[in-house]
From TrEMBL:
The keyword Signal does not apply. The lineage of its organism: Bacteria, Bacillati, Actinomycetota, Actinomycetes, Mycobacteriales. This is glutamine--fructose-6-phosphate transaminase (isomerizing). It comes from Rhodococcus oxybenzonivorans. It is an enzyme of class 2 (transferase). Pfam families: GATase_6 (PF13522). One of its GO terms (molecular function) is glutamine-fructose-6-phosphate transaminase (isomerizing) activity.
Length: 298
């Protein structure tokens, strides 16, 4: 079933409340996906240090401080890190892609689950609200966040199978539904040189979008191309360093509702996740139309 929530803040005075607002939204969706959860925050100054890149890892075999010391020596720059079990967060004054590449070289068994200049991704198995509180999400600040509660259908219940899938710099994709032709698309992407980390169908969608963005396609066009290429039933929320986008398939049987005010834009699988947002009584509330791409920019 799965549950999606996302919040894009337009009003800077609300930035300190991002984590608390997103935690409340996520808590309303726990019954839609009790298996595992993931969340991504843009702009928290502790999780994504200003002037440094950030890499998020799963299942790192060594403590963050030890890994950071090794990376500092190999990159000839200072790398710092901390553990939020099972996620490890690393920061460095080096390009995000370069830091992620160095991590893969030093700890190839660890899974890079997010990288960028403004993004931190956290994932885990278990009750979503318990995970959010353990990670410290209620105290997070920033300008944009997405989160997902998962009920596994296409792959095993693991932290790496939880959403969001973040496979491009400062990019995230969360998904309610399933792609029916993802294997054929995956094989084509592999022939084009794209590598995969999991057997999850959502990763195929994320890799497809990331490839289009890397080739210079804008986000709206990338999602229109996804609609033309993928079969199945799906609602997607896609975020980048400056954008927040929603798209559904042609049938649109997977629920979604959007609310918009001058201060924020929010999306969730059900209205109850939006009901406590400040000023929601005056929001424009609507259900996204089939195959129409909705994009908001920072």
């Amino acid at each position: 079933m799965c549950g999606i929530v996302g919040l894009h803040l337009r009003e800077p005075s609300l930035y300190p409340q991002l984590g608390a607002l997103l935690t409340d939204m996520l808590g309303q969706m726990c019954d839609r996906g009790p298996d595992s959860a993931g969340m991504a925050i843009y702009g928290d100054k502790a999780w994504s240090k200003v002037g440094e890149s950030t890499v998020s890892l799963l299942d790192c075999p060594v403590p963050a401080t030890e890994l950071a010391a090794t990376l500092s020596a190999s990159l000839d720059t200072t790398v710092t890190g901390f553990d939020l079990d099972p996620t490890t967060i690393l920061h460095g004054v080096v390009g995000a892609a370069d830091l992620a590449t160095a991590v893969r070289s030093v700890v190839p068994s660890a899974r890079v689950i997010g990288f960028g200049d403004d993004l931190t991704v956290l994932k885990g198995v278990g009750n979503p609200i318990d995970l959010a509180n353990r990670f410290g999400l209620p105290s997070a600040s920033g300008w944009q966040g997405v989160a997902h509660t998962r009920m596994a259908t296409e792959s095993a219940v693991t932290a790496e199978g939880s959403h969001p899938f973040s496979v491009g710099p400062d990019q995230c994709l969360v998904h309610n539904g399933s792609f029916s032709n993802h294997m054929s698309i995956k094989h084509q992407l592999e022939r084009d040189g794209v590598a995969f980390d999991s057997a999850n169908d959502t990763e195929v969608g994320a890799r497809f979008v990331a490839k289009q963005l890397a080739e210079g396609v804008d986000l709206e066009k990338a999602l229109l191309m996804l609609n033309e290429t993928f079969d199945g039933f799906y609602t997607l929320l896609v975020s980048t360093a400056d954008s927040f986008a929603v798209v559904r398939d042609a049938i649109s049987c997977k629920p979604a509702v959007i609310a918009e005010t001058d201060q924020w834009v929010a999306m969730a699988s059900e209205y109850r996740a939006l009901a406590n947002l400040p000023g929601v009584d005056n929001a424009r509330i609507f259900e996204p139309e089939p195959e129409e791409v909705y994009v908001w920019h920072r």
